[in-house]
Every structure is written in C-alpha cells, then in structure tokens.
C-alpha cells in the first residue's frame, strides 16, 4: 500500500515539528503541503522540506488524504469541521476544542464522514510511559506536576486545556474509570484564563489523583508518580526516564526512540500511529482527483463555512521543550 498523502495546517513551532516528522516517515506518509495564513512562514517551512506551501486550507482539498491540524485552539472547531466534512482524516493537536459542544460536533462530523479523527496526546507515546505501563496494575494514588515558564503561546485556553490535559488523559487511561468526585481550583496570573491550577480526582476504586499544572513557574518540571500496594513508579516525562521502587528497588531504561530529540521521538511515534490508522481507513470521496491504489484524495467541498483568515499559528516563543507539550 502506498504511503498516505498528508498536509499540515498551522506551521508554528508544533506544526513545523509535525511536518518535519512526516518527512522522516517515507514508508507511511508523503508530505504534500503545509498551510498557514502567514504565507511567508508556510513558504519557509515548505522550502526546507520540499513540499508545497498554501495560505488557505481549502487549497489542500483534492491533494491530501489526511491532515495534522496545529492551529490555535480557538480555530480547532472551524478548521476541523471543514476538513472532516470534506472527507479528510484529521489528527488534531490537543486539546480537541475549546468547549464540549465543539468537541461533540467534531466527533459527529467524523462519524458522518467515516473519517479517522485523533487527538495528539503525545505523552501516551512517551517512551517512559510505554515502558512503565506493564508494571502498573492497580494504582492507588497518583501525583503529577507539570510546570513551566510562561510560554507566550497557547494562552487562548487555560493551563488545564493547554498542558494539564496530558495528565488527565493518562490518569483516565491508567485508572480506566470515570472519577466520582472532582475538586479543582485555578487562577489567572498573566493571562485572561487560568495560568496555574490544581485538581483532585477520586475514582470508584478509591484511587486518588492530585494534578498540578502551571505556566508561570521559574522551573520546568514534567513528572508523575504512581503508587500501588507493591511499590511506586516515578516517571520524568521530560527526560523520558522511569524508576520503579519495590522491596528491592531497581531502575529500568525506557525504550529508545528516534525523531530529533526526546520530544521528537514521542511525536514520531504519535504520527506513525496516526498514519497507520489512516492507511487502514477508507475515507469516502465524492469527486476523487484520480485513482491511487484503493484510495483517492477527497475533493468534496465542506458544508459548513470555513473560518475567515486569521493567524493560524502562534510564534515560537519560550522554551521549545515546553512548547511541545
């Protein structure tokens, strides 16, 4: 099966990483184009990676089968709806949307078009998390800290949707149940939305998760500790290391990865997983531009209005390590 034809919409810091990683997956994906309302930025990234530049996401229709959407969160719904209704598979950078109603609308659009719609929770593909999962059986207490300096990007949503969402996603996947009680508090410091927040989640099993996220810290920390009856695991997301403590403590090394640094490795595993899912899917298309094996690039025009031009990618400001998360 030939590689899937992909594009990236929004090529700020994170979007540019997506584009670079697609270029490193020639057996799974062919990077066709990058798109940004900042045309100069799109042309710069396209020139480096040898693909086409576009200033309007509609220009990608008929050329791509799948797209990474890396625009600011307040544009996720509009851009995602247009692509899904055009029959294009979508990998949406987290969070899925700014509101629950927008998220539900995106899911319904994906079901109607029978498209694969994924959200880029890259910590699931963190080497330390993947290695540690086999040791986790019945977590009883979970404590996570995700702190960074002010990023000057992603601040259109609260720190909960910006970064705590990673820990919420992992906790829910590890405990495999919904919380019966949530106590939370957050305060704005430099933004109009919460810049620091703490949440305490209680689950039916008795497991308690205490999560803290801040983007106004003078240090960079991304750690989670998980306690169960026979010991505990301490995981450093940033260094991608994990430590298991039992009666006889021992250390174990995470599975190695490639992709341009540790965060790059997690993104590569994320996009590889997405590309394999896209290749195994069969998105419908009403006006194919021409046969490509058993697949073709959707060219159907979206039923919903597309967003009016606005900046789709935030500038790369702050610590690049923090920017990925």
What CATH architecture of the largest domain would you give? 3-Layer(aba) Sandwich
Q: Could you give the distance between the termini? A: 32 Å
Question: How many structural units, i.e. domains?
Answer: 2
Radius of gyration: 20 Å
**Element-by-element helix/strand order:** EHEHEEHEHEHEHEEEEEEEHH
Query: What is the total tally of β strands?
Result: 14
Mean of all residue-level pLDDT scores: 83
Poorly predicted runs of 5 or more residues: 251-261, 283-294, 308-325
Q: Main sheet?
A: 8 strands, mixed
Name given to the CATH homologous superfamily of the largest domain = NAD(P)-binding Rossmann-like Domain
Measured as a percent range, the helix fraction is: 25-40%
What do these coordinates show?
This protein is α/β, with parallel strands linked by helices and 325 residues long. The chain has helices at 13-23, 39-49, 76-85, 100-113, 127-132, 159-175, 262-280, 320-324, and strands at residues 4-9, 29-35, 52-54, 66-69, 89-93, 117-120, 141-147, 181-187, 196-202, 208-214, 221-228, 231-236, 241-245, 250-252. An eight-stranded mixed β-sheet has the order 8-9-10-7-11-12-13-14. A six-stranded parallel β-sheet has the order 3-2-1-4-5-6, sandwiched between helices. It is globular, with a radius of gyration of 20 Å. The chain starts with a strand and ends with a helix. Residues 251-261, 283-294 and 308-325 have low confidence and may be disordered.
